[in-house]
């Protein structure tokens, strides 16, 4: 597989660039402590991330993938979660192997990079900076920046608009069915990593254009302009 005519690369954040679950799980349990609910633990939280903070909170409050949370409790949990996460955004999160190498090579080629995530931008931005990769990204599109979160195409379309290019000339890189769906809905190619947060499913089942073991392999698959 060789991607041609690529003018920018869009990256998902959690599960693609950063293993952020240790911090997310810690914040979820701190939140549940405040609300007088049982802690859920990292193993449970790891199966819940990837669909944005509101879905994560609903799952944490109900200890279920699909149950509906009490609206009043969810409203109470939102600001507390953001406050707690802002104070604990990068204590235990780690870059996946190959991330620095892949980003550095793409940046050296002059390809603009965007981070397109369902995480709120006010939390994603500090995480990118504190973990040491914020400078690579020309723009950050968080979950609240577009009308609908991935797998809707809105966030990818917004990133392309900000960079002044046709979204079909961007390569989306992610770890989940949401990333593949967003790319397909936007009409752009998609590469995936196999190690992220995809609710226990093999990402190959979502039929991305290619799966790379680490992001260090990605630049070799993008033809030079």
TrEMBL record:
Provide the E.C. number(s) assigned to this enzyme. 3.1.3.18
**Residue numbers annotated as active site:** 12 (nucleophile)
An example Gene Ontology cellular component term from the record?
Answer: cytosol
Report if keyword Hydrolase is assigned. yes
Q: Residue span of the signal peptide, if any?
A: none
User: What catalytic activity is recorded?
Assistant: 2-phosphoglycolate + H2O = glycolate + phosphate
Pathway entry: Organic acid metabolism; glycolate biosynthesis; glycolate from 2-phosphoglycolate: step 1/1
**Cofactor(s) needed by this chain:** Mg(2+)
* Family from the record: Belongs to the HAD-like hydrolase superfamily. CbbY/CbbZ/Gph/YieH family.
This chain's protein is named: Phosphoglycolate phosphatase
Q: Which organism is it from?
A: Plasticicumulans lactativorans
């Amino acid at each position: 597989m060789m991607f041609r005519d690529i003018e920018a690369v869009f990256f998902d954040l959690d599960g693609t660039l950063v293993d952020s679950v240790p911090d997310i799980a810690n914040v979820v349990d701190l939140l549940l402590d405040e609300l007088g609910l049982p802690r859920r633990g990292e193993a449970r939280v790891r199966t819940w991330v990837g669909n944005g903070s509101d879905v994560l909170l609903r799952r944490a409050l109900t200890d279920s993938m699909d149950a509906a949370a009490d609206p009043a409790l969810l409203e109470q949990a939102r600001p507390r979660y953001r406050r707690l996460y802002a104070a604990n955004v990068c204590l235990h999160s780690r870059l996946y192997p190959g991330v620095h190498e892949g980003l550095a090579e793409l940046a050296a080629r002059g390809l603009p990079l965007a981070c397109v995530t369902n995480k709120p931008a006010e939390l994603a931005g500090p995480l990118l900076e504190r973990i040491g990769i914020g400078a690579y990204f020309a723009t950050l599109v968080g979950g609240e920046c577009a009308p609908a979160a991935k797998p809707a195409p809105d966030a990818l379309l917004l990133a392309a608009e900000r960079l002044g290019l046709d979204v079909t000339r961007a390569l989306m890189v992610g770890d989940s069915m949401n990333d593949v769906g967003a790319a397909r809905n936007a009409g752009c190619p998609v590469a995936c990593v196999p190690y992220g947060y995809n609710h226990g499913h093999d990402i190959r089942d979502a039929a991305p254009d290619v799966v790379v073991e680490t992001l260090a392999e990605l630049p070799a698959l993008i033809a030079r302009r």
